[in-house]
Amino acid sequence: MKYLKSTFFLLTLGLFSVCNQSGNVTTAKSKAVAEIPFVNTRALLEDLKNRVVELYKWNEVQSSHVDFEPLLQQEMDSVYVGLDLARHEQRLAELRETNFFTDHFVENYDQIARTIDEKLKDKSKIWYVGELPPFGNGANPWCNCQDNPDKYWENIILKNVHMSNGDAIFSWSWGGDVGYKAKAVLDHGLWKIDYLEGFDPKTFIASE
To answer: Quick check: pTM over 0.90?
Structure first.
């Protein structure tokens, strides 16, 4: 955005100087303004939607789906003693390699895992084998849903999109009134996911 504004200013200034010498300032300046391309908001919206669609297609088709894998001390134990941090490191690498996420998102995801691991180890949270974990809301955090339609990513729409300074805050839905809150950041012309509602630490690992 900075580079576009700088280019616009310099080109307009140059045309103004040349046309001033020819005595036709107003006409040439107006033409220069009309011909310089501005950032197309509609194109940015389309790029953002496509990026979200690509993310959720990856999540359903290619992702390992290993989020916060629990660990048993012994095979027959009934309580998990922590998270499998080796698997967690593999998951972090997987998330980074997709290029879908900002460093902030990955770091937040990592901090959630470390906090869960600590709470399970010090027994401030108890996770019994066969029961729902004592974090999250029992739903899939990627969509805050228990179930989803087949190939739902093909029907994703964006709602309530607010763009400012290279950030986009929005909700996505596959239809109906339900929306899932998210935030993306424009990084060198590419949208990257910076926040997903289902991985908000304030609610995902909230203290009871």
So the answer is: no
